[in-house]
Design a protein that fits this description.
Layout (H helix, E strand, L loop, with lengths): L1 H11 L4 E5 L3 H15 L3 E5 L3 E6 L2 E5 L4 H10 L5 E5 L8 H12 L6 E6 L6 H4 L2 E4 L6 H19 L4 E2 L1 H11 L4 H15 L1 E2 L1 H14 L6 E4 L12 H15 L12 E6 L5 H12 L3 E4 L1 H7 L4 H15 L2 E5 L2 H5 L6 H17 L4 E7 L7 H4 L6 E5 L4 H14 L9 H7 L5 H17 L6 H10 L3 H4 L1 H14 L1 E2 L2
This protein binds adenosine-5'-triphosphate and magnesium ion.
The site of adenosine-5'-triphosphate has 19 residues, from α11, α17 and α19.
Length: 490
């Protein structure tokens, strides 16, 4: 534990009062247990509920005193030095008597006591500041989380007379998922996962990630998306998929291989309905990590005037949830610095760019955009994203695949449909429009009690005017713009 050394230094330097702001009581207790052995001082803990308890000279002692000042009076009279960890003392720190007693105990030259005040928030009164040190407990490390999982498993094993089943990969993933939580919260989640069936499996991981996200609740700016996708659901975008496949292992590795930094993110630019949002979701699904969506709309609407703070908070949550995908859909809508209200978006952009540049956590950002005019140029500068991909309208072979995916997805048999013909007929169709044609055709076939056929879909294609026809100039401009600044996704 990193804390041990620092605490030893504090105690060695004779500071009698240590103030710890934390929720993580079990962790504090575990650390001071070890300190107590190191310094050979008996350890006592006190809380309103349990009173004072501890061990000295080999025997247990317990004093059911729930009033802090009486306990402090008792400590003041003790003739040998001890280590006293007092929980939930914040509400008492305004009482003159408590302050007086703490002062006297800490000024006692004959008995070198160490008093540790623990509470989620501590306002240390001026009178005590001179004799005290504030100490910050960091969150448990991966090693400590592993020890904790071992403990919970052993407890379950003893109770049930068999051992907990868990694969190494699952434990590793679990440890990663628990990072950022206090020991208390992490232990509770692990206990729940183990105690239902004695097995730690992939399903538990998803549950734990969801529960963790709830603990970190960020008021709706960031949403936890359960609905991810797989690369198999996405037709085409072959270069993008290959790029992502090459980076997956390094991104998920606990220790990044020498010379390779985990990727930070990509921007998907392109025509409407080309599958950008779908691709963003499938990164999370294919890499097996949580998908968090940052919604600028909520950020602006819900927290007028507090947008930057809330953005920072959301980004921090993403850091804690790492490894994860942070998906910002239609990023240009939230960051457009054009027009009169450029003020707040400019600052938001600044906050986002700073985070993108400085973060060390494994948050893979996937941003999508289709309006290049509205995209702030700063975002496109080299080094912001690892790569900017251009998602164009699907080519014929990709259209074939999109038909197949969407027909099969709706429990229809794509092998009875002439996919080649449909692909040829649907020139300039986007993926979204192809999906729409399949859905409408399915309705038509239902209406006349027939199974879905090539003809049904063909009919739908012939009555659809793809957006790309209406917007051909815009798309041409987009392609030209993209050819110099982006790489093709397919
Ligand atoms: N390449 C594809 N493979 C399979 N399905 C696709 C593909 N492209 C689009 N689709 C279907 O169309 C739907 C809409 O596409 P999506 O929302 O991902 O497009 P988009 O590029 O984000 O569009 P927009 O710019 O309008 O947000 C997807 O949910 C998916 O069902
Ligand atoms: Mg989209």
């Amino acid at each position: 534990m990193r804390e041990l050394k620092d605490l030893e230094l504090i105690i060695d330097s004779g500071i009698p009062l240590i103030c710890v702001e934390t929720d993580d009581e079990p962790r504090v207790e575990a650390v001071f247990k070890r300190i107590s052995t190191r310094f050979d001082k008996p350890l006592y803990t006190w809380s309103v509920a349990t009173g004072l308890q501890g061990r000295s000279s080999g025997s247990d002692m317990r004093m059911r005193e729930t009033e802090l000042h009486k306990v402090l009076t008792h400590i003041r009279q003790m003739k040998f030095s001890g280590l006293y960890v007092l929980f939930d003392v914040h509400s008492h720190l305004e009482e003159p008597l408590t302050i007086r007693l703490l002062r006297e105990i800490s000024q006692n030259q004959d008995v070198a006591n160490t008093i540790v005040l623990v509470a989620p928030e501590l306002d240390v009164p001026q009178e005590l500041k001179a004799n005290s040190a504030s100490f910050e407990f960091s969150l448990p490390s991966e090693e400590e989380l592993e020890v904790m999982i071992g403990e919970v498993s052993r407890e379950w094993g003893l109770k049930n007379k068999k051992s907990v089943q868990a694969k190494r990969e699952v434990i590793d993933a679990l440890i990663r998922n628990l990072r950022g939580l206090t020991t208390t919260d992490a232990r509770r989640l692990v206990t729940n996962a183990i105690y239902d069936d004695g097995v730690l499996a992939e399903e538990d991981l998803a549950e734990i990630t969801k529960a963790k996200y709830k603990l970190l609740d960020t008021d709706g700016v960031l949403s936890f998306e359960m609905d991810t996708a797989r690369f198999n659901d996405v037709a085409g975008l072959r270069k993008l998929k290959a790029w992502l496949d090459r980076r997956k292992k390094v991104f998920l590795a606990t220790d990044a291989p020498k010379g390779l930094d985990p990727s930070k993110g990509i921007l998907l630019l392109g025509v409407q309905g080309g599958g950008k949002s779908l691709a963003a979701k499938s990164v999370a699904g294919s890499w097996g990590i949580p998908l968090l969506r940052l919604d600028f709309g909520t950020l602006y609407n819900k927290y007028y005037g507090e947008t930057e703070r809330n953005l920072r908070q959301s980004l921090k949550t993403a850091d804690v949830m790492s490894p994860c995908v942070l998906w910002i859909d239609e990023i240009e809508k939230g960051l457009s610095t054009e027009g009169d209200d450029g003020g707040p978006s400019k600052r938001i952009l600044g906050t986002l760019l700073t985070w993108m540049a400085e973060r060390e956590s494994k948050v893979f950002m996937v941003a999508t955009a289709n309006d290049i005019e509205a995209l702030p140029p700063e975002l496109l500068r080299k080094g912001r994203f690892d790569e900017i991909f251009f998602v164009d309208l699907p080519s014929e072979d990709v259209r074939r695949e999109i038909f197949r995916i969407h027909i099969d997805k709706r429990d229809q048999d794509s092998s009875t449909v002439d996919l080649d013909a449909l692909a040829a007929e649907s020139e300039l169709f986007s993926g979204a429009e192809i999906e729409q044609a399949v859905v409408s055709a399915l309705y038509s076939s239902h209406a006349v009690d027939e199974t879905l056929s090539t003809e049904h879909i063909s009919n739908e294609i012939s009555v659809t005017k793809p957006l790309a026809v209406l917007m051909s100039e815009k798309i041409e401009y987009l392609r030209e713009w993209a050819s110099e600044r982006t790489v093709p996704a397919d």
